[in-house]
Amino acid sequence: MIGIASAEEVEFEARVQIVIVGAGACGLTAALAAADAGGEVLVLERDESPFGSTSMSSGFIPAPATRWQHAKGIDDDPGLFLEDIQRKSHDRSDPTVAAEVVEAIGPALEWLEDEHGIPFELLDGFLYPGHSRLRMHAVPEHTGEALLTRLLQAVMEAGVPVMTGARVTTLFADEDGMIAGVEVTRPDGSQEMIGCGSLILACNGYGGNPDMVAEHIPTMAGAEYHGHAGNTGDAVIWGEALGAEIRDLTGCQGHGSLAMPHRILITWALMMEGGIQVNRTGGRFANEHQGYSEQAVDVLKQPGGIAFDIYDARLHTLGLEFPDYRDAVHAGAVRQCNDLETLAEFTGAPQQNLEAAMSETYEDEVDRFGRDLGKTPPLQAPFFAVRVTGALFHTQGGLAVDGEARVLREDGSSFLNLFAAGGAAVGVSGPEISGYLSGNGLLTAVALGRIAGEAAATVW
To answer: Into how many domains does the chain fold?
Structure first.
């Protein structure tokens, strides 16, 4: 059981200036920032090997006004990015966090490359839903796993210890809320007490806690969870016990295209560039350009919570640029259908319904769902199809923080030495699943992670 305990009369076996809970992109970025600022850092990771939601993500990070954009002649700035974020969330994004991260993320990526040897490049294949500029950045491998591997290597080279198999179960605090240390439970059941001068919570959200999901995001209760099972809401539980303010627990990132039963992400680029989704009867049911997060809800409303991605050879070639899609092809999730008859056999839908679904998409410049496909050509045989479902990827609500990532109390004051970032902190997607803008998760993980690490290093 996790919880909060009094720091009185606790004897700590060791003490370190900064303890970070979680070794995902957020925790490792915070560790590098704190170490660069001269801090003594220890990262605690519950798994035997760091994995987490970062490894399961695409690894794409949105950032404005970067040198990679400038090199390709793309005019972008933090203000425009902020407008995109607030437009997607209908002006319900946390204003403090949103304003901070749009300014911080570009310099953070350049710092990671310049100071820690993590190379980035700009993705220019297509414009992600809700973004008005090409601003997605990734490491050369274009995967979250590679991003995490590179961050972990940088942390090791910086001499920052990462203790694995170390789940933090208890936070020790005094009457004023100052964090004195943590209790760590090891796989064999043994426990260690570690004192700290400041604590950064980088342990993501609560997507792996079915009870919390059912309570706060009932539309996704029972949906496939495509995130780390260890994201059980520890930060929220600790925060509530300490009297911290919690915001936007109803916010999350969904995805309307998780291949089943393979559980492999199918890139939404296929939909943005001309593909369609149909249900088991062969009918379209939503605007595939509305955003892949909210599309998860529409897919789950279909019979059996199942839909089919349908596209053609042109888009199949585009998909092969993405590692996840190549994995799906190798796993047999992608089916080539040389004609409508074969497509009907694979989907189980009437052939005439499939033909009608494709035809209606191009009859008018704007179809009945409000989707504009005037700039993409009609689908042509051979067709490709994938059986998919809607899934929950991660939650976007969490602990309220100030501009330095310090956790806020319900009265608006801040905890002096308690910080939260990434999925442990409130994100910038607002309170609805539709507020998620592509890349919001890694945006706050990296930007807030750096902010938290630098601020924690000033606490003595």
So the answer is: 2
